[in-house]
Amino acid sequence: MRHFIPRFGKTPQINTINEIAFQHRKLKLRSAQNNERGLSLVELLVGSVVASGVLGIALSGALFNRQLFLQDLNRTEVNDRLRTALDLVGSDLKQVGESLNQKDSKFPVFAVASDDNGNSVIKIRRNLNLPILRVCNPSGINAGSSQNSIFVYGQGNSQNQAPGCEKPPGLNHNELPPDLATWINHRNNSGGKLRAFIYNGVDGEFFTYDRENQSNFSIHREAGSWKYDYPANGISRIYLLEEKKYQLDEDEILRMIIDDKESVSLVGGISSFEATVLVEDPASKNNNQKQAAIFKNTFNFSDDWTTIKSVEVTLESTNPSDADSAINSRKSPDGLRLTRQFFPRNVLSN
Questions:
Q1: Distance from first CA to last CA of the chain, Å, rounded?
Q2: Percentage helix, strand, coil, to 5, in the chain?
Q3: 130 within 8 A of 240, measured Cβ to Cβ
Q4: In a domain, 5, yes or no
Q5: How far apart are CA 324 and CA 321, in angstroms?
Q6: DSSP H helical segments within 98-257, as ranges?
Q7: Selection from 245, 258, 301, 254 nearest residue 273 by Cα
Q8: From CA 14, how far away is CA 35, in angstroms rounded?
Q9: Span 42-87, pLDDT tens digits
Q10: d(CA 186, CA 148)
Q11: How far is Cα 89 from Cα 93, in angstroms, rounded to an integer?
Q12: How many domains does the chain have?
């Protein structure tokens, strides 16, 4: 019978379980050492480059969106400014010849000229809806004279008076004719002086009406001499007109000047102000042909204003902001220039 006798010698060099535990502890120790060490220089450089690229793209997009926003905002401001100016000018153009109370196609109510810079100057006159007086001086008024008293009703026998110069019937002693009384009240309520317009059917001029003589029904001109003759033939008349002049000044401000003394700033930033008048072609009118039209850049007070078909007004604005060249370089001419047409409605009643 054989017996197994254990052999005592060397034990195994690697114990599997112990080796696994040892390797695990070794990995944990190495990982902890790496965490304590932080990022390397190469890793920092790569991260910085990536972050810079992302920020650059984001900033570029933000600036581009800002440019688009400011461009739209500026264009809106420009269009609003142009529309406002055109509405103001157009409102008066529609009232050319207002309240004249007579059919006179040559009455000087509208004119278009050009200034030294090529911009248009528009003048519009309208009656203030007050009575129209007549020149009733027995010998009329002569050009070059300094005759300052203008009789608006006749004196003495009505048979020798010009048409329309007869005193209203039924006036009591010291009672004024209603038309003259209206002028006196308006003058007293307007600071004591008025800008009146005298017209002989062809030519006319403004003068300052400063007082009246109620005993002989006359009004008084402050000073000066007359440019034209004003005969007492029933045609020479005196009006209280309002004259508005639209023009562009050197500061690119569109101004409305009332009666050559009161200046009102309407809108700024206007680089160009143009007016074109569309009128009937006289040749086609005289030949009974189909009415044709021609464009005129100038229109004189002596022209027949009842031939006007429309007035075209064009405004061009300067860039609202010159500080941002990038925005201005992207701007389209569209939106900086606006044109509208207006029709003087009183043409239909003359």
A1: 155
A2: 30, 30, 40
A3: yes
A4: no
A5: 7
A6: 178-188
A7: 254
A8: 31
A9: 777 777 878 788 887 877 777 777 777 666 666 777 778 788 889 9
A10: 20
A11: 6
A12: 2
Residues 140 and 227 in one domain: yes
Partners of 206 in the β-ladder: 197
* Residues 25/31/36/41 CA torsion (nearest 10 deg): 150
Residue-level pLDDT at 105: 79
As a whole number, mean pLDDT of residues 15-38 equals 63
Domain limit, last residue, from 187, 218, 239: 239
Q: Write out the residue range of the structural domain in which residue 139 sits.
A: 133-239
Greatest extent of the chain over all pairs of C-alpha atoms, in Å: 184
Q: What percent of the chain has pLDDT above 90?
A: 36
Task: Specify which residues 195 forms β-bridges with.
Answer: 208
Q: What is the dihedral of CA 322, 325, 326, 332, to 10 degrees?
A: 60
Is residue 173 within 8 Å of residue 213, measured between CB atoms? no
Compute the average pLDDT of residues 23-40. 62
The stretches of the chain forming alpha helices (DSSP H) are 16-37, 41-93, 178-188, 282-286, 325-330
Length of the chain: 350
Alpha-carbon gap, residue 150 to 238, rounded angstroms: 10
301 burial level (CB within 10 Å; 0-12, 13-18, 19+): middle
How far apart CA 201 and CA 235 sit, in angstroms, is: 6
Q: In this structure, how many other beta carbons lie within 10 angstroms of the beta carbon of residue 2?
A: 4
Q: Are residues 77 and 220 in the same domain?
A: no
